[in-house]
Amino acid sequence: MTYLDYQATTPLAPEARAAMLPFLDEKFGNPHSPHRMGREAAAAVEVAREQVAALLPPGGRTAFTSGATEALNWAIKGSKGPIVTIATEHAAVLDTARWAGQAGREVHALPVDGDGLVDLDAARAAIAPGTGLVAAMLVNNEIGVIQPVAELAQLAHAAGALMLCDAVQGYGRVPIPDGCDLVAISAHKIHGPKGIGALWVRDGVALDPLLHGGGQEAPGRSGTLAPMLCAGFGAAAALMASEADRDRAHVDHLWRIATRRLGPEWAVNGSTGRRYRGNLNVRRPGVDAARLISDLRGIAFSAGSACASGSGRPSHVLKALGLTDAQARSSIRLGFGRYTGEAELDEAVTMILDAAARQRMWAA
Predict the structure, then answer these.
(1) Helix/strand/coil for 109
(2) Nearest to 306 by CA among 23, 8, 36
(3) DSSP per position, 111-158
(4) Which amino acids are annotated catalytic?
(5) What's the rounded mean pLDDT across residues 83-103?
(6) What is the 3-state secondary structure (H, E, C) of 168-201?
(7) In whole angstroms, what is the distance from residue 110 CA to residue 119 CA?
(8) Which DSSP helix (H) or strand (E) runs through 244?
């Protein structure tokens, strides 16, 4: 199968797998135990923490979590005051903010323009003194658009608010602005294992705990860490750092191949200038994306967020851009990266074009 769904998850890097294996066998100690096996496991966790933190801003603490969803829930529920976010955020932010709204916090979702970029004038009006938290995704998971997080952080700080950055899709690929106070990341989006993420917390920022218990992680997260997952995350992060230039060049090359093959009949959803190019979200009139995915069983691609698949609803991200229901349902997302081959991408695009042409012919 040709895998073109890198925004949903990425293939596990061989280096990450190798780093994990010892902790499945002889190095099975609890990293919070005081004996030698526990100390060895704890040392591995700290090595991984340093590797992950190397791609984050300076001046903060990195707490491992079960994933980015937990990290975002912790950041939002652990903060206080009114929340300002963006209409195109991931459900882990929007649903958590909605929960906070039901609990009595004021919540405001900023609109985006046709390119998917936040309206900064609306942001200036909404981020007023008294705002407690501003939450924005660095790279959108559905359309790859890079939001002006640095500018939003300046507005947040001027209002006395904290800046939360959902950097899941951008971590290791797009620089994370130093102005962030909280950053959520996930291992399985960077060729690491599933089941582990992290919340970076700027020094001096205090959050109420989300999980109560032993308080094993310094900023207040409770639960026994899995050294295996930490080691895999650390190895994947180290690889993202060492391969950054090569990965970027490869992704840009694949983007050019895909957009050239698709041609002008397929419109790109979202900005083409402010974008991570490993995410190609496109649409063509007369195409049924769900049927296209069903027909092409040999290609793994999607019509949007994996978290919303099967809902039957048009993408809230594409709708926020101003697309109609029909346009949203005719959109597909192709995600590629380090392990995507040029020839397999070319062949996959050919199959997509052929299947789309058959759809349009039968519909005529």
Answers:
(1) strand
(2) 8
(3) PB-TTS-B-HHHHHHHS-TT--EEEEESB-TTT-BB--HHHHHHHHHH
(4) 307
(5) 98
(6) CCCCCCCCCCCCCCEEEEEHHHCCCCCCCEEEEE
(7) 7
(8) helix 244-262
**Could you give the CA distance from residue 183 to residue 192 in angstroms, rounded to a whole number?**
18
Domains, the chain, in order of start with CATH, read 2-9+244-363 (3.90.1150.10), 15-241 (3.40.640.10)
In tens, the pLDDT along 322-349 reads 999 999 999 999 999 999 999 999 999 9
Backbone φ, ψ for residue 249 (5° rounding): -65, -40
Token reading at 52: 């992950």
pLDDT band at 309 (very low <50, low <70, confident <90, very high): low
Q: Which residue type is seen at 10?
A: T
Nearest to 64 by CA among 196, 191, 172: 196
Provide the token pair at 148. 């002006």
- Residue 35 sits at φ, ψ, to 5 deg, of -80, 180
In terms of residues, how long is the chain? 364
Do 100 and 107 form a contact (C-beta atoms < 8 A)? yes
Q: How far, in Å, CA of 149 to CA of 292, rounded?
A: 35
* pTM for this entry: 0.96
